[in-house]
Amino acid sequence: MCPIWPLHLIILYILALCPLWVLCQSAPTLLATFLPNITTVNMDEYEYVNVTISGADMQAGDQFTLATANDHLLAADWNSTYTLTEDHVQKKRFDGKVRVTGKFLGRTNVLVRHHRSGTEGIQVNGSLPVIVLRPERVIDTIFVTSVATFVSLIFINFGCAMHWPTVKDVLRRPIGPLIGMCGQFLFMPLMSFGLGFLIFPHDPAMRLGMFFTGVAPGGGASNIWTFILGGNLNLSLAMTSISTLASFGFMPMWLFSLGQVVFRNAHIVVPYTRIATFVVGLLVPLGIGLGMQKWTPKIAKFMVRILKGFSTTLLLFIIIFAIVTNLYIFELFTWQIVVAGMGIPWLGYCFGYFLAWACRQPHADSLAISIETGIQNTGIAIFLLRYALDQPEADLTTVVPVSCAIMTPVPMTCIYIYQKVKACFVNRRKHKKMLEEDITPRGDSPQPAIISTADLYGKSNKGLEDDLKTDLENTGVNPTPVSVAN
Length: 486
Description:
Layout lengths: L6 H20 L4 E5 L3 E4 L3 E9 L8 E6 L5 E5 L7 H6 L1 E10 L3 E10 L6 E2 L4 E6 L4 H24 L2 H9 L2 H25 L4 H11 L6 H8 L4 H23 L2 H5 L9 H24 L1 H9 L1 H19 L9 H24 L4 H12 L3 H11 L4 H5 L1 H9 L1 H29 L11 E3 L1 H5 L4 H13 L5 E3 L4
Parallel strand pairs: 2-9, 10-11
Antiparallel strand pairs: 1-3, 3-6, 4-7, 5-6, 7-8, 7-9
């Protein structure tokens, strides 16, 4: 038996409580209270927040410093003194004002640390949650308005170039549109759903961004690229119209089925108004172009002549302007974002072309189906994310459709460059071949000969011969009479 029994039990309890006592002594006894208790600030802007620190562990000369959980998102500075005085010690209370400046999108916290001479500082209880948002800018409005205007103009050009009998044939035998709908409304949603789980296994918000991008077909740039690359423009326009109208039914089906699986807490709203706006913005300019074919054919022909140059200029404008206005979002790019942006459109191109090829469609039709399948309406995807998620997650997840929009034209740009280089070499070979075959100088060609009608028909046809000579002289040809023996 233990000689100090039962005192050894008390000693053991004391020894067990010693570490807890040490931790309690080192734990902060001050409490920071912020007003408001949560704040929102825009990027490159600042807000002021009042802070009150209370507690008994205060000494004159102590200092409070500020820190943020993520310095990349937010900066915090005192807008008042942060050194304690005797008055603060007596009141056991410190009141100050903090200025928080937003740097980048996201959520973070402002922390307060208590410093005493000779110590590194202890974190004070209490923190300030801060949400950093992206402000609405004038340049964003200018970009959206200018793109909408230019796209409307180019769809008028498409209407001028559209061959309505061909479109009616497509609608009577909608083989191409049916192939495209299989790709747009079956393959693309399922592919984006699976690819999202593969690339972002632990980030449901990013998976939702991928899925929303995959269920939004009907990008207006598909018609432009189809025309530039030599695809069937009439089929492309018919497919865009049909797929946009079909979105009224297929999009809700996918959003309320797999969309809930991807992100159960999302507030999913079907953008019927936005889809209807896109339909009107598509059909009205096309109707204007078709009307110009009938009532102003000369202007319509001119619009068709400038269509290719105008289309190329518009694409360059959209790409450059979009990059300039959204430079901030490149800070969010990771290899996963880049792969997601490439995967959605590029896999769509491949699937659409090979499905059309398997159905024995012509190359021009297969190209149009491929482009229609791969190009998504990223504007609708961004709209869906804005309504489905709270800020700043809504803006953070838009990096997926933005990445998709940036990666979409890469393969088609490469094809366009290849076509131009190939055409240059082909034309050069043709020109060289023509020069080699054309060995007879132009000046050595003989003058046309005239058979004398007098020799053929006698002197009575002298007047006919004179008339024929006069006509030839008026055309600049020097007739050389040739007598033909009887």
